[in-house]
Amino acid sequence: MTAAAMPASSTGASGIGLRSERGPVLLALMLCTALVALDSTIIATAVPSIVAGIGGFAQFPWLFSIYLLAQAVTVPVYGKLNDLFGRKPVILSGIALFGVGSVLCGLAWSMPVLIAFRLVQGLGAGAIQPTSMTIVGDLYSLSERAKVQGYLASVWGMAAVVGPTLGGALSEYASWRWIFYVNVPLCLLATVMLLRSFTEQVDRSRPEIDYRGAATLTVGCAALILGVLEGGQSWPWLSVAGIAVPAAGAALLIAFVMLERRAASPVLPLWVFSRRLLLTSSLVAAGVGAIVLGLTSYVPTYVQDVLGTGPVVAGLALATLTLGWPLAAAQAGRLYLRWGFRACALVGAAPLLLGCLLLLTLGTGSSVAQVGAVCFLIGLGLGLIAAPTLIAAQSSVGWSERGVVTGNNMFCRSAGSALGVAAFGAIANQMLRADHSRIHLDLATRHVYLSVLVVALATVVAVAAMPRRDVPAPASPAGAASDSSAE
Q1: pLDDT for the residue 387
Q2: Tens digit of pLDDT for each residue in 133-151?
Q3: Residue 305: CB atoms within 10 Å
Q4: What is the 3-state secondary structure (H, E, C) of the chain?
Q5: Same domain for 257 and 112
Q6: C-alpha to C-alpha distance for 41 and 159, rounded to whole angstroms
Q7: Exposed / middle / buried, residue 357 (Cβ in 10 Å: 0-12, 13-18, 19+)
């Protein structure tokens, strides 16, 4: 059902307007997603040029950490703002902040300054990611959402291939500053497309904002994720910083829970974790985040350093993951409408677990085609798991709660990615301390793959713990008609 065909109930006090053109809006959302995804990978091959230009080699890992950190910790806050002020102002503000951060990064004159401006970029990215998924939940019916979210998910995989190649080309033939400047016209294009094609009506009353809760949640998550990201890297795990930073984060999150119990309008309502469907879907999201990051971080390294190929071939091997994901997601809509969300996700468990098992068979004599086939199989599984579990969570609430639920799901995926980075990195580094030879690198990646399998098993357990009877979508201004009709 197209947006223009939505009944009048979809344009109530809060909802998507009748004039929203879904095609251009989806293209704009994919463009926004590409901006966020590319900036997570494009710097990798540009680091030598950046260090040669402004110095600061010892500090360059923070270019990655600060971006991921800022993006992850602000997702729940932006999710709440989506429900308070509407999707359009939040995503436009995120695009603007991301664009300004990109310009500032291009103008940076030292590594500490560049790191600070990467923080600004991350703050903008934190608004774009959950809002894009929330808009999809508003605009598309149950039968359509899996396919559309598969499109958005595939953008992340393509960024893993295109980002490093583009970053290297711009650094070599232009300037490393252009890896940031290139974002500006794309931000402007996405803004124009959303302004022209996306319309919503929002209650303009003065909402009560939980500033204390938002600040406590942001700082607490920042400290906890920072401790995980930098533990064993910037400082030893068993050091003052290694213990104090995550401990402070945990203490602040406990304080956040106490604050939210008394807040009139909590930034992250505790019912998000008390409902079985929302809790299990969040755990699945965390597992998906860890699996995807584990593959995107170590498969290209394995293909290049163990199999002896170039970066382009390594990227193509990983790209099969992004091919399998949208193909499976395109069929997921039919499956969960017929069998239910849980059953559809359990179907995806088979190719996911089989693919992770086959990872363990890869070695120094494997071919790139084998690697690609395994990644394709895992992509099929993720496509049948990630989209249905997120859509199940979105469909269990109304418009006024969909932003919080989507934001929480995206935050759990980001947190899973951050934890995955730390855990997989620690495992690989432990194996490589003894010897940096080709064989030991193979053993290191094999241990990472074994860890990915463990995470996949835990993810499937979370899927199995979902309610057997799917929760029907409630009446909501933007989603009631399409959801109920689809079911």
Answers
A1: 84
A2: 888 888 888 778 777 877 7
A3: 16
A4: CCHHHCCHHHHCCCEECCCCCHHHHHHHHHHHHHHHHHHHHCCHHHHHHHHHHHCCHHHCCHHHHHHHHHHHHHHHHHHHHHHHHCHHHHHHHHHHHHHHHHHHHHHCCCHHHHHHHHHHHHHHHHHHHHHHHHHHHHHCCHHHHHHHHHHHHHHHHHHHHHHHHHHHHHHHHCCCCHHHHCHHHHHHHHHHHHHHHCCEECCCCCCCCCHHHHHHHHHHHHHHHHHHHHECCCECCCCHHHHHHHHHHHHHHHHHHHHHHHCCCCCCCCHHHHCHHHHHHHHHHHHHHHHHHHHHHHHHHHHHHCCCCCHHHHHHHHHHHHHHHHHHHHHHHHHHHHHCHHHHHHHHHHHHHHHHHHHCCCCCCCCHHHHHHHHHHHHHHHHHHHHHHHHHHHHCCCHHHHHHHHHHHHHHHHHHHHHHHHHHHHHHHHHHCCCCCHHHHHHHHHHHHHHHHHHHHHHHHHHHCCCCCCCCCCCCCCCHHHHHHHC
A5: no
A6: 7
A7: middle
Whether residue 78 contacts residue 407, with contact meaning beta carbons closer than 8 Å, is answered with yes
Q: Which tokens is 87 given?
A: 């999707």
Last residue of a domain, one of 144, 179, 200: 200
Mark the ranges of the chain whose per-residue pLDDT is less than 50.
Answer: 1-14, 17-19, 472-487
The pLDDT value given to residue 465: 92
Asked whether the beta carbons of 80 and 269 are under 8 A apart, the reply is no
285 and 349 fall within a common domain = yes
Contact in structure between 99 and 188 (CB atoms under 8 Å): yes
* 45 found inside a domain: yes
Answer yes or no: do 336 and 468 share one domain.
Answer: yes
Give the pLDDT of residue 421.
72
- In angstroms, rounded to a whole number, what is the distance separating the alpha carbons of residues 461 and 484? 29
Q: Are 280 and 245 in the same domain?
A: no
Is residue 342 included in any domain, yes or no? yes
Is 368 found in the same domain as 472?
yes
Amino acid of residue 343: A
pLDDT for the residue 427: 78
- Domain span at 223: 210-266
Q: Are residues 329 and 250 in the same domain?
A: no
For residue 478, the model assigns a pLDDT of: 38
Q: Is residue 9 part of a domain?
A: no
Claim to verify: residue 314 and residue 261 sit in the same structural domain: no
Joined tokens for residue 429:
């580094």
Q: What's the CATH number where 464 sits?
A: 1.20.1250.20
Question: Do 309 and 246 fall within a single domain?
Answer: no
Confirm whether 390 is domain-assigned: yes
Cβ pair 358, 374 in contact under 8 A: yes
Q: Residue 338: what are its φ and ψ, rounded to 5°?
A: -90, -40
The total number of structural domains in the chain stands at: 3
